[in-house]
Amino acid sequence: xxxxxxxxxxxxxxxxxxxxxxxxxxxxxxxxxxxxxxxxxxxxxxxxxxxxxxxxxxxxxxxxxxxxxxxxxxxxxxxxxxxxxxxxxxxxxxxxxxxxxxxxxxxxxxxxxxxxxxxxxxxxxxxxxxxxxxxxxxxxxxxxxxxxxxxxxxxxxxxxxxx
Length: 163
Prior knowledge:
By secondary structure, the protein is mainly alpha-helical. It has one domain (3-23, 35-162). The protein has helices at residues 3-23, 37-48, 55-69, 75-89, 91-94, 99-124, 135-162.
């Protein structure tokens, strides 16, 4: 298998796994702590291989997420496009942060995602979410080092097998 195909399959597989993790049932007590997996995976790929992630792909991935979760069509699409825009804009700085600073940046990005979601709820007249709505960015910040290291290791293994 050539290099480009292997990297594309890893990209596609990671997005499929993120979609499955978003759909995975959790006990009611743990639901507020579910990280935004699509956002985390998109964030990783935007940092490491920006040519794979553009605003269009982020928007399409968000539409897939909307359909899978039964959300308002365009909800996640708008949020992921905004996330991708910010990451691609500041990619050169974010890539070279130490892991703890990257985690804090991921927290800020996921917090921004929640603010966009809250604004959308306000525009559509949906009820305000409970305070537990804000737990997911913290969970995403804590999951970020593991997501980053796992995907980075998989990419490194692909490079070793290519040589």
